Amino acid sequence: MEQKIFKNKKKYRLTLTLRQAATVFVLSDVRNEPPEWLAEQFQATGDFLRVGPWHQALETAPGIELEADGPYLRFAVWKTNANPGELHLGHPGESMVGEQAVMYGVAVKSQF
Prior knowledge:
By secondary structure, this protein is mainly β. Helix content is 5%, strand content 44%. Strands 2, 3, 4, 5 and 7 form a 5-stranded antiparallel β-sheet that branches. A two-stranded antiparallel ribbon has the order 1-6. A hairpin with a 2-residue loop joins β4 and β5. The longest helix has 6 residues, at 36-41. The chain is elongated and about 45 Å long.
């Protein structure tokens, strides 16, 4: 039986179709090295987001910030200015530590 979750699809690809120029932000789990596609197409902004609380099962995972209300993860903010058309994003954990792959977040801001 084939599993249909992204972390087991090493060739996972997300395609964004932009109707106009936009700034595209990707939020990436800092526990892993940035995937090659991210480092090639985007620039690190130096900003970070603390995201959570996550499920209690993550409390003992590497790189977790444990707070009273549960475990939190840090995500680095990356950005690129994209022209109209397709923008392809790859797998979130090409350089995963063990099996710890968390899907990245995406935000798009129109440039007009």
